[in-house]
Amino acid sequence: MILWRREIALAWAGGGGPLLACGFFLCLTVLVPxxxxxxxxxxxxxxxxxxxxxxxxxxxxxxxRLFERDLEDxxxxxxxxxxxxxxxxxxxKAKAQWLAVGAPLALTAPVAAVTLGLPPALAPLVGLSAxxxxxxxxxxxxxxxxxxxxxxxxxxxxxxxVLPLFIPPVVFGAGxxxxxxxxxxxxxxxxxxxxxxxxxxxxxxxxxxAAIRNAQG
Amino acid sequence: MITVSSLTVSRxxxxxxxxxxxxxxxxxxxxxxxxxxxxxxxxxxTLAGFIRPDAGLVAFGDVEPAEARANHIHWLGHLDGxxxxxRARDELGFQAQWSGATADGIAAAVAVLALEPLLDxxxxxxxxxxRRRLAFARLIASPRPIWLLDEPFAPLDARxxxxxxxxxxxxxxxxxxLIAAVHDPLPLPARALDIGVGR
Lengths: 217, 199
Hints:
The structure holds two protein chains of two kinds. By secondary structure, chain A is mostly helical.
């Protein structure tokens, strides 16, 4: 699809946004042990939670690029007058954001979590849950980016709008890791995580498309 | 092709125009004139569906407005919609294909607008006039009957104003129509509509 190829190319263009997000992610996970003092053993119980927090924060970084740039340079007007409904445009952009930024982050997450002291046996689960969660982050992130369209300092506004919406996936994602670490099945938490993603996939296209139309007017 | 009846549009508290009616027939060019801020761009944005009017109707013959906006309208705003960091070839490819152009159509547009030497450059290296030509290429590459143009000639030199005037005439001869917001007269026979006179 034409838009899909463009979005992936744009995500990697001009300084490689995904690499930036992964670098930011690693910096955050390095900072936490330093800030928490010299006892790495104390971090073990919260390693999964920290990895999820860092994942959520890193997912916000490139959201401003999603719609704001296209609004500024007039490309959004052109895209609106295309053969594809705006709702589908939003979904395509969010999915491209997931593949370009979320997937590299999901690959980085197990490394960071194990570095923080998570048992290596849980690394695949970290990667899987981060991959599901990153799709949720991309979808609700797209909604936040659309709502902040046209606002001055939109990037900051996106972070404030989006972070509260990121609470459920962080809770479910970190919960899955905690259950697994205690020998329980992580499936219920993963199911809640997937339910959040499905909900976001239904709500975001319509809400974000309405916000974009409003910003264009 | 377009019938506008008793249109009222306001931006914030200010009413730009009230009870505006106009029509555009096949093969006809309409030049919107008026002072800066009179509402020429807002009228074009209303026709394109970006602005919801306070009152009045915009109809596109027997075509549904949503269908007209998806497949029948070419929009060339005062912004070109080009990403400065990408190569001209990629941006032209995206814009033209998004508007429904085929590879043959794109090649024809490149030839007519002499874009070949620019295609491998990044958009940021192009001048404003070259960018406008690049953005204009999608109008040639993909045939859509209605052209909505906001200051299409602003950054162009005399040679390209004349050349694009001829392309507009060819579009009208094929049964298309166009509405352009302009300050200088269009280089082709056009009906003029002064916005903001009856205010």
